[in-house]
């Protein structure tokens, strides 16, 4: 299997809140990027097919890609889903369960700033339409910088909430900010997630770890030339990648800041593959 671009999006919106704007693309740009994927001859496959291939199952098509979306913004329901449906493209949506609007109420609580997020009815509808619903923790913390007990609650609590809402098991997880550690990944496996995505801005491969799947983050400032390069298998390294000294040092710094009650870190999806 050749290098596989696993794209990660956040919001697809013409007027996003300022905090997520750098990680937002407009509907026009998103549609153009879907066209670029098709023009490159890539077959968009469900994430579970990539995971199966990593685990030694059936091989993927020679040239393929995966689409993923983090956090659970409402524009996935109103904008993204129609664009994907008309093209018959699969995608995985990673939901921060504490940010979802319960029926007739307000979000249950997350660290994400205010934005228009999905309701539980919309999450269930997207699931019924065939989009894979995955977990993105309860409150969106930096899992590798919080106490182990809290990380466990975030990882297992998200799974239980989604399975209760959808009435079936869920298997795919994504680390908030892309941050994880060996202990976090061990917990992910132990509670029953069978795959987990980071960021890393790298291509996935059959030699990778199913709970360390790298993704290419699409931002507002992602140049069309770079996106086209990604669709052709260039412009980024390929997993597996070893942990750099910079990544280790950044984790130590964030943990120290968290202990002082002054957490540090970037916005959603800013992390690298540990």
From TrEMBL:
<dbReference type="InterPro" id="IPR051398">
    <property type="entry name" value="Polysacch_Deacetylase"/>
</dbReference>
<dbReference type="GO" id="GO:0005975">
    <property type="term" value="P:carbohydrate metabolic process"/>
</dbReference>
<keyword id="KW-0732">Signal</keyword>
<feature type="domain" description="NodB homology">
    <location>
        <begin position="63"/>
        <end position="274"/>
    </location>
</feature>
<dbReference type="GO" id="GO:0005576">
    <property type="term" value="C:extracellular region"/>
</dbReference>
<dbReference type="GO" id="GO:0016810">
    <property type="term" value="F:hydrolase activity, acting on carbon-nitrogen (but not peptide) bonds"/>
</dbReference>
<dbReference type="InterPro" id="IPR002509">
    <property type="entry name" value="NODB_dom"/>
</dbReference>
<protein>
    <recommendedName>
        <fullName>NodB homology domain-containing protein</fullName>
    </recommendedName>
</protein>
<dbReference type="InterPro" id="IPR011330">
    <property type="entry name" value="Glyco_hydro/deAcase_b/a-brl"/>
</dbReference>
<dbReference type="Pfam" id="PF01522">
    <property type="entry name" value="Polysacc_deac_1"/>
</dbReference>
């Amino acid at each position: 299997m050749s290098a596989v671009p696993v794209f990660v999006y956040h919001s697809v919106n013409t007027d996003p809140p300022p905090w997520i704007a750098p990680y937002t693309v407009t509907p026009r740009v998103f549609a153009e990027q879907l066209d670029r994927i098709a023009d490159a001859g890539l077959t968009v496959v469900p994430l579970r097919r990539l995971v199966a291939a990593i685990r030694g199952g059936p091989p993927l098509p020679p040239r393929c890609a995966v689409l993923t979306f983090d956090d659970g913004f409402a524009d996935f329901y109103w904008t993204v889903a129609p664009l994907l449906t008309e093209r018959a493209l699969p995608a995985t949506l990673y939901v921060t369960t504490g940010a979802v609007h319960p029926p007739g109420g307000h979000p249950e609580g997350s660290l994400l700033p205010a934005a228009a997020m999905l309701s539980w009815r919309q999450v269930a509808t997207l699931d019924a339409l065939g989009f894979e619903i995955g977990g993105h923790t309860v409150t969106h913390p930096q899992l590798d910088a919080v106490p182990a007990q809290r990380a466990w609650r975030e990882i297992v609590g998200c799974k239980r909430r989604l399975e209760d809402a959808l009435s079936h098991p869920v298997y795919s997880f994504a680390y908030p900010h892309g941050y994880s550690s060996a202990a976090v990944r061990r917990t992910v496996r132990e509670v029953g997630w069978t795959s987990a995505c980071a960021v890393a801005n790298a291509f996935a491969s059959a030699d990778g770890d199913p709970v360390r799947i790298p993704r290419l983050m699409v931002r507002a400032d992602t140049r069309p030339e770079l996106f086209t390069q990604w669709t052709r298998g260039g412009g980024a390294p390929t997993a597996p990648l070893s942990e750099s000294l910079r990544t280790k040092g950044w984790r130590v710094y964030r943990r120290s800041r968290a202990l002082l009650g002054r957490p540090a870190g970037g916005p959603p999806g800013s992390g690298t593959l540990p």
